[in-house]
Amino acid sequence: MFDNLIFANKKVLITGCTGFKGSWLSIWLHLLGAKIYGLALEPPTNPSLYVEAKLKNIVDNKVINIKDADKVSALIKNIEPDFIFHLAAQPLVKYSYLEPIETWQTNLMGTVNILDSLRLLDKKCIGVIITSDKCYENQEWEWGYRETDQLGGSDPYSASKGASELAFSSYYRSFFSDKSLTKIRIASARAGNVIGGGDWAENRIVPDCIKAWVKNSTVEIKSPNSTRPFQHVLEPLSGYISLAQKLNSDDNISGQSFNFGPASNSNYKVIEIVKKLSDSWGNPKWEITKNATPFYESKLLKLNCDKALSLINWEPTLNFENTMRFTSEWYYNFYENKCTDIFGKCCDQIIEFSKLNQKVI
Q: Residue 55 in 3-state DSSP?
């Protein structure tokens, strides 16, 4: 259960607030009464949830590249936030092959810049460092990865996220572990493969389908049998908020990492996502094609989330049916019903999600 008083009138900085997850998190924390500050580039897609929901009305965003250490440090020193949610990243595996240096600089050094800015902050601040489920050295196991499993990754994106976790651990042990010397409390969060309304990124299965079907075009499915920990975007965000709330009251979990994924029996194949999504779109077209890309991406990935349940009382809320209903309804309202109150639609889904999870906002 979220405690409204924890975030009410608190200064919350969200890096990457113009992105898909950052936009949803901004709306949710606004509903919880927080004063939202942003550190992000311009919206990465067109359309974008940040623009469509008119989030500039609730987010005081500064257009700063997370790679710019001096500007990042100056902004955090000026805001003196009570909470930081670090989401800014280069989030795409395929793009990481095309632009590996940018990926490493953004994902690793961007995280280091946030951590170092926290080191220089002389006040209590809760930091949630978001990395990815792909930070693990993927062995294509049938069981879920635990927080103590080996970090790594063959592609630049995955490896940069594993390295970000190492930076997080190093900064905690070097600067934040002695509670008598610092007021900073940090933890890292690992999640990935989120779906939901307002995602228009390239090379993601749901946006690819929606963008094709609204034009009555055929979407190409290249890896139909790949299994991913698909979950609605509100699931990991509820985990991030729960983690920040727990950090605020319990010093003992500072320095730890947490997985936020679907239930162990709820991983679905890409083709299952496509078929379920298609239910609300009349008779959409897709075809399975040979994956001709030279870039490798893992076919099987699962997370074990027992630690999150045990220590912060978090567990996934939505079953597969509701996950797909939330996602499809959002896009259907946007494209078919020409919904103009996107902010209100997002608020409605957050409220429904919270009721399903017996959380109050």
A: helix
Q: Residue written as tokens 């997002």? A: 346
Phi/psi class of residue 251: alpha, beta or left (left: φ > 0; alpha: ψ in -120 to 50)?
alpha
Please state whether the peptide bond connecting residue 156 to the residue before it is cis, i.e. omega within 30 degrees of 0: no
Confidence of residue 265 (pLDDT cuts 50, 70, 90): low
Q: Are β-strands 11-15 and 231-232 bridged in parallel, bridged antiparallel, or unpaired? A: unpaired
Number of neighbours of residue 73 by Cβ within 10 angstroms:
18
CA distance 195 to 207: 9
Provide Rg for the chain, Cα atoms: 19
Beta-carbon neighbour count of residue 319 at 10 Å?
13
Interstrand relation of 285-288 and 231-232 (parallel, antiparallel or unpaired): unpaired
Residues 241, 49, 280: CA angle, nearest 5 degrees:
100
Domain assignments of the chain as residue spans, ordered by start? 4-356
**Integer Cα distance of 80 and 171 in angstroms:** 19
Tell which wins on pLDDT, 306 or 1: 306
Was domain 4-356 assigned CATH 2.60.40.10? no
Q: Is the pLDDT of residue 268 over 50?
A: yes
Spatial contact of 33 and 4, defined as CB atoms under 8 Å apart? yes
Q: What separation in angstroms does the CA of 258 have from each of 19, 150, 170, 254? A: 22, 14, 17, 11
DSSP one-letter string for 1-42: ---HHHHTT-EEEEETTTSHHHHHHHHHHHHTT-EEEEEE-S
Q: Is the pTM of this model over 0.85?
A: yes
Nearest Cα residue to 314 out of 247, 206, 238: 238
pLDDT at res. 5: 83
Closest Cα to residue 7, out of 33, 26, 38, 25?
33
Residue 221's H or E segment, with its range, is strand 218-221
User: What one-character DSSP code corresponds to residue 87?
Assistant: -
Two tokens at 168? 């997080």
Could you please report the per-residue DSSP string of 264-324?
Answer: TT--EEHHHHHHHHGGGSSS-EEEE-----SS---SB--B--HHHHHHH-------HHHHH
pLDDT, residue 279, reads 85
